[in-house]
Amino acid sequence: MKFFQVLAHESEELVEQAKPSLEEVIRTNSLNFTLYGLGLLLFLAVVAVFLKKTNEKVKYLLFGAITSISVATTVYLAGSTIYLNQVSVTGGPIHWHADFEIWYCGQKVEIKDPEGFSNKVGTEVIHEHNDDRIHIEGVILNRHDTSIGHFIEQIGGQLHQDHMAIPTENGLLEVENGQTCDGQAGILQIFVYRTEGDSFYQQKLIGNPQDYIISPFSQVPPGDCIIIEVDRPKDKTDKLCTFYKVAAEKGEIHGR
To answer: Do residues 123 and 81 both lie within one domain?
Structure first.
């Protein structure tokens, strides 16, 4: 598409990924601790087989080592889980979803696809599965970690009130307020569709829209439909996420 040829490029200085959260660090450490523990247990089991005719003192030492490793691994995993749940702002693990679409001058922007063996773009906690859906899964320690801006950061982009950078298959798409759309200056605007009972409505986010916290729902709808759009200034958008369209067509929800 033409606008990609103008604005998207293979930048040598791609947007820096945010540092791993405490939850991600503990998750990684727990996995490593478990793997190391299993490796040591396997090693000791092999040693025990070869030394099955040894004296009782060596057997007691092997048994004590196996028991200590098992207990230490269990205590660490249980302790880290309890700790994360205690400090979590959500009171424990969550599994929230919100659909989103990004539009530039009337053309939909597709973010980059997962690479290699991964089925996601982003982190274990917040990511996208090439399905135009924000997935937030795990323990949240900071409310900001459930915001639109944080999601864009975690997939390798940036989102501010007047600037956006989105990683695509064609490179990094960078957009700033003032770039023209059909001869008119376009601006970055974010609209959110939300539900209330069996009806839904849209609102335009004003002032630091990147800080918007997605609604705490696992299904969409009632989870949010977020439209990020660069176009001439407008009060409403005519864009709507697929699952909202389907639900409306089925009569499950009604626009107002």
So the answer is: no
pLDDT digits (tens, 9 = 90+) for 92-135: 788 999 999 999 988 999 999 888 888 899 988 899 998 999 99
Q: Which of 38, 59, 87 is the last residue of a domain?
A: 87
CA dist 75 to 32, 35, 71, 78, 135, Å?
14, 15, 6, 5, 30
What is the spatial distance between Cα 153 and Cα 15, in angstroms, rounded to a whole number? 8
Closest CA to 119 of 111, 137, 131, 106: 131
Burial of 225: CB neighbours in 10 Å, binned 0-12, 13-18, 19+ = buried
Q: Alpha helix (H) ranges present in 14-165?
A: 22-50, 56-87, 148-154
Spatial separation of the C-alpha atoms in residues 60 and 72, rounded to whole Å: 18
Q: How far is CA 5 from CA 9, 152, 195, 199, 229, in A?
A: 8, 22, 37, 40, 19
Nearest to 174 by CA among 191, 159, 153, 154: 159
Judge if 44 and 166 occupy the same domain. Answer: no
Between CA 15 and CA 210 the distance in angstroms is 16
Q: How far apart are the C-alpha atoms of 44 and 46, rounded to whole Å? A: 5
pTM above 0.90, yes or no: no
Q: Which element (helix H / strand E) includes 4?
A: helix 2-7
